[in-house]
Amino acid sequence: MWAPDEFLEQMYQTLAAQRTAAARKGEGSGADRETFAEDAPTRPTEAAHVHAHADMEGAGTRRARLRQRLGLSAFGPLNGPLAPVVLERVTAGDVVRERIEFSTVGGLRMPAYVVVPNGLTPGERLPGVLLWHGHGPGSRTMVGLAGDGWPAAPAGRLGDNVASALARRGLVVMVPEIAGFGDRRLQRDLRRDPNAPNSCFSLSVSLLMAGRTLAGLRVAEAMRAADYLQTRPEVDPERIGSIGYSGGGMVTTLFAALDLRVRAAVVGIYANTFQQSILAMPHCICNYIPGLLEDAELPDILGLIAPRPLFIESGADDPIFPLAGTTEAVARVKEIYRRAGCEDRFDYHIFPGRHEIWGERSFAWLAEQLQS
């Protein structure tokens, strides 16, 4: 076995078997096991694993383990002053767009756009949504602006931009700039290449060598972004949602799994299995979290959002998060929600497209969940 293909497959299957064995230890009484076996999923080796991840009482332990894998504690307490500053305020027809910044962790300042429906009455409070961009020029494209060195965002299916499309449904939309993109690329990367698309590699290797992860930093900052959004006078702090696409779908998945303030979540063009997506083809290094497969596959992490509402949106022809993996993830997440007694809070849409934002059903779904 010179080429280690079989070695990697054996390693993956061994970890999957270990997760299943660990799940069986807490499977419950014999009667529970008998009932469980009668309606087990198609893949019997995963049956106990799915059953365990539908156990809401054990969710706290699984969240704690995920926090450890991300290295969240290394970023310090997430409770410092936000010190927000409004940098720009523009009225654009039926919405008002602000560019703001605030403090997150370790002295970092996070820029973001906030898009608010125009004409709110004094004291009126709407649901707040965190909208997460993926790989590309950053937050600007989510509000219809061009990123440095990138063409202006096309009108496409969503009209002028995603944030305004959501705001027109009665939501206050915050679009943070994820670390490593847009205005948050490293200066050393830009000195080397003024058109560097992102700083994911430089950030990831530096954080990994220090025992941290870029995913952990992004989740920590997402929690701080939620802190800020809850302070907005137009936002009902009890009605917070999260929606993200591709790399932003990863942020939404991890953030919503860990932060119970997220009342509803939309995961776009990301939900899959690790085996059939980031382990099957080259992906950005920011996707990889050391040791995570010892605890969970991606559908298990999505299942941590239960019993809160979750919507998965994926393209039938997505080349980097393939349909087969999405189909498997949807089936496993649906089973987790069913076993948790909240199947009606899970929905999905496989749209006729590739790796792109769609929104045909998910936007209305998110607004409905947060406004009900």
Please explain how this structure is put together.
This protein is of the alpha/beta class and 372 residues long. It is 36% helix and 18% strand. The protein contains twelve helices and nine strands. The protein has helices spanning 5-25, 30-38, 47-53, 59-70, 162-167, 187-192, 200-209, 214-231, 247-258, 298-303, 323-339, 362-371, and strands at 85-92, 95-103, 109-117, 126-132, 172-176, 235-245, 262-268, 310-315, 346-351. The protein has a nine-stranded mixed beta sheet, sandwiched between helices. β6 (235-245), α9 (247-258) and β7 form a beta-alpha-beta unit. The protein is globular, with a radius of gyration of 20 Å. The model is unreliable at 27-45 and 149-160 (pLDDT under 50).
